[in-house]
């Protein structure tokens, strides 16, 4: 059941229907497991772009950048290896979050694209461009503070001149 949910959440990649590159967490690795062992095992079901192996005293875990050859191979990967015993450790596979450096690069690219829109088109005012928070105007942003001893809420709004 979980394999089907992960396969569905991976979604399609490009227009050709190939699955997109995803990051997989593999927990419960024994001390004897190496990066090449992980690459050899998972490469039969897709392309392994990278492996980050983290070790503690008696256990380890890894993050694998993996592109499955098809949606069925992704479901097969999770159904086959999740919960199995491999080289002395009981594996736990989960879809991992995006790598923090990749996320930063993506966010910077989005910010650059947003800035280029405002610089290229002089008709677009900076306030008209949607901010990441979803507000189109800074004057709409308010901060609500609760003062427990006073049992009172205070609303602080922002404006161009400073705090309102």
From TrEMBL:
SMART domains: RRM
GO molecular function list: RNA binding
Species per Swiss-Prot/TrEMBL record: Iris pallida (Sweet iris)
Boundaries of every RRM domain copy: 22-98
InterPro entries given in the database record: NOP8_RRM (IPR034138), Nucleotide-bd_a/b_plait_sf (IPR012677), RBD_domain_sf (IPR035979), RRM_dom (IPR000504)
PANTHER family: GERM CELL NUCLEAR ACIDIC PROTEIN (PTHR23099:SF0), TRANSCRIPTIONAL REGULATOR (PTHR23099)
Keywords: Nucleus, RNA-binding
One GO location term (cellular component): nucleolus
Keyword RNA-binding: yes
Location in the cell: Nucleus, Nucleolus
Major place of residence: nucleus
Pfam family, one: RRM_1
Tagged with keyword RNA-binding: yes
Protein name stated in the entry: Uncharacterized RNA-binding protein P16F5.06
């Amino acid at each position: 059941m979980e394999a089907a949910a992960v396969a569905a959440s991976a979604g399609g990649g490009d227009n050709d229907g190939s699955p997109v590159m995803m990051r997989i967490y593999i927990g419960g690795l024994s001390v004897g497991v190496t990066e090449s062992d992980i690459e050899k095992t998972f490469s039969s079901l897709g392309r392994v772009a990278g492996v980050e192996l983290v070790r503690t005293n008696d256990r380890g875990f890894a993050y694998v950048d993996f592109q499955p050859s098809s949606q069925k191979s992704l479901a097969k990967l999770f159904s086959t290896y999740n919960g199995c015993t491999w080289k002395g450790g009981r594996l736990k596979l989960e879809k991992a979050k995006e790598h923090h450096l990749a996320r930063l690069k993506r966010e910077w690219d989005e910010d650059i694209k947003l800035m280029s829109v405002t610089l290229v088109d002089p008709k677009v005012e900076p306030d008209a461009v949607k901010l990441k928070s979803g507000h189109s105007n800074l004057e709409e942003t308010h901060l609500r503070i609760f003062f427990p001893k006073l049992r009172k809420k205070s609303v602080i709004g922002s404006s161009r001149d400073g705090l309102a």
